[in-house]
Amino acid sequence: MITASAAEFRETLPMGGRLLGLDVGTKTVGAALCDAGWTIATPAELIMRAKFSVDMARIRDLAGKQHAVGIVIGLPLNLDGSESPRTQSTRAFARNLEQLGLPILLWDERWSTQAVTRTLLDADASRARRAELVDKMAAAYILQGAIDALTMG
User: Fold this and answer.
1) Each residue's pLDDT tens digit, 67-111
2) What domains can be seen in the chain, in order of their start residue?
3) pTM to 2 decimals?
4) Contact 12, 1 (CB under 8 A)
5) What are 24's strand-pairing partners?
6) Calpha distance 8→96 (Å, rounded)
7) Bridging pattern class, strands 41-48 and 28-34
């Protein structure tokens, strides 16, 4: 099941359980996890994109080892809310992940990369360090927004 509704996503989940957050880029997939109580999201790892079967195996392994009960994927909308080719690519990636059998929430990620980059700049992170961290931190930012919405209702 793929949805953009936090309420619908929450209904498919057991109460609690870890969620896997993904920031899907063209070269990397940033991954983040939250605790079973949906309190805080933390960056987990950066997956270098390869063939989809390789990406899928890595995500399946991570979700299995962490006992994830659902997946939150950042949906890259344009600033006006319209869709772009990247949005369509992310939707296709989500459809391919459906074979994992976990519910998937598509979460608006319009401001995630900018917010994380600003935080890293404020922390005086080098350009190389920012490149290494931004995608998995963006995944945590996306996942945190989603779990905040899930626990408010």
Assistant:
1) 999 999 999 988 888 899 999 999 999 999 999 999 999 998 876
2) 2-152 (3.30.420.140)
3) 0.87
4) yes
5) 29
6) 20
7) antiparallel
Q: Give the angle subtended at the CA of 119 by the CAs of 117 and 125, to the nearest 5°.
A: 75
CA angle (46 as vertex; 42, 52 as ends), nearest 5: 125
Alpha-carbon distance 76 to 78, whole Å?
7
Q: Across-strand partners of 75? A: 108
Torsion of CA 140, 146, 150, 153, to 10 degrees: 130
CA 123 to chain centre: 23
Give one DSSP letter per residue of the chain, joined into a string. -EES-HHHHHHHS-SS-EEEEEEE-SSEEEEEEE-TTS--EEEEEEEEP-SHHHHHHHHHHHHHHTTEEEEEEEE---TTS---HHHHHHHHHHHHHGGG---EEEEE-TTHHHHHHHHHHHTT--HHHHHHHHHHHHHHHHHHHHHHHHHH-
